[in-house]
Amino acid sequence: MTTMTAPETAVQIAEDALAPTVAADGHAPFIVTYPTQQKAPFVFSSPHSGRHYPADFIAASALDRATLRASEDIFVDQLFSMVPAMGAPMIAAEYARAYLDVNREPWELDPKMFSDPLPDYVNVRSGRVTAGLGTIARVVALGTNIYKDKMPFADAKWRVENVYQPFHQTMESLVNKTIDSFGHSVLIDCHSMPSSGSSFGDMPLRTKGATADFILGDRHGKSCAPTLMAVAEDVLKSFNYRVVRNDPYSGGFNTRQYGQRDKGQQAMQIEINRSLYVDEKTLTKTDHFDVLQQHLSAMVTALLDISPDALSAD
């Protein structure tokens, strides 16, 4: 990556210290892209943009690949691909969300999906499990059942141990290294959401029904300083986007886990309306992808420029 000028407080991240493991099927569970120098206490993540669908998963599914992809935060990792050059590390999941969701507790599982009893430590009663969207999802985003038959718990155990745990071990390491270097950390957890309608400036992109272009989540003020939300919102609104806070997405597991302010950790979730940059039927990029990426770059620049005092304010 091209060398860039960084302030004196910038730190070098040793890339070989956080090399991703490789799962038994030969595929890395995630990719971390590092800056030449980390110049701000930020870590970016894209937990739902993975596009790897193992062959045995496809064989066990009642759905075709196109239907399974309805759960992807499609191209979100690419939308934020400029982040490392701007001075912050970026971690992106490689395995598809329909296969395993790293934005959940490690053991949120629906017992109806399994052919054998689940261990006592499994959380079988969370709202996400009830909705069919646990760590191993029962349904895709459209509410359609994924699997033809029940699976053995050993299958879920393999996925958690070989995909979920390596992702979070690395995420935790990135956050801890950032705290060691800067005194605190800020996670920006990047997602996309399906649309019923959206806008780009004054031009409708999908339907006449208006909805949010962006939803920013801070767990209703719990996971980050007010300045973080305000700066992101102000930049996005300057480009005439509709921005909503915390409704209906206030932040998932990652926002809660890495947004514990008493530990020097902050986190903000950002949801992007997919109709701003992708044709949701063909799952192909629209002409607005590059423009949206430029606008997100402006937002990232403003976030990285927030002063330490502002980030520490209540």
Task: Kindly describe this structure.
The chain has helices at 55-60, 65-68, 76-79, 83-86, 127-130, 153-182, 226-238, 253-257, 289-304, 308-312; strands spanning 30-33, 42-46, 90-93, 185-193, 199-200, 203-204, 214-217, 243-245, 265-273, 278-279, 284-285. The model is unreliable at 1-18 and 197-209 (pLDDT under 50). The chain is 29% helix and 15% strand. Helix 7 (226-238) packs antiparallel against helix 9. A hairpin with a 2-residue loop joins strand 5 (199-200) and strand 6 (203-204). The radius of gyration is 19 Å and the shape is globular. It has a single domain, classed as Zn-dependent exopeptidases (Aminopeptidase, 3-Layer(aba) Sandwich). With 314 residues, it is α/β, with parallel strands linked by helices. The strands form three sheets. Strands 1-3-2-4-9-7-8 form a seven-stranded mixed β-sheet, sandwiched between helices. Strands 5-6 form a two-stranded antiparallel ribbon. Strands 10-11 form a two-stranded antiparallel ribbon.
Question: What labels describe this entry?
Answer:
10 helices, 29% helix, Aminopeptidase, alpha/beta, 314 residues
Describe the protein's topology.
Blueprint: E1 30-33, E2 42-46, H1 55-60, H2 65-68, H3 76-79, H4 83-86, E3 90-93, H5 127-130, H6 153-182, E4 185-193, E5 199-200, E6 203-204, E7 214-217, H7 226-238, E8 243-245, H8 253-257, E9 265-273, E10 278-279, E11 284-285, H9 289-304, H10 308-312
Parallel strand pairs: 2-3, 2-4, 4-9, 7-8
Antiparallel strand pairs: 1-3, 5-6, 7-9, 10-11
